[in-house]
Write a structure and sequence with these properties.
The chain is mainly β. The protein is built from one helix and eight strands; from the N terminus they run ββββββαββ. It is about 5% helix and about 55% strand.
Length: about 100
Amino acid sequence: MATVTKTVHVRAGAWRTLESFFNTTATGLFVDPAGASIKIRWGVGFLGGDRQKQTLDGNATKTLKVSTGLSLLRARMQMRVTRDSDVTYTVQLPGP
């Protein structure tokens, strides 16, 4: 399994896509910022939906999992923050 840790700047307001997947599995691990929301958005437009919505508390690691079935329709790991923030998270992908 390949593991990548990333830091990105996330602007406050609407849901922001951090990662996008198609026909694969993936796991996202998040801790900060406290009060931020994370979810998986699958599909497109009214044909899509949200799964695994969680709120970060700044202490416990929250996990989002993308499955091959959902990512056939395109799956996105998304975050919404209350103020502009630098966010560090880890993504685990299949492979060496």
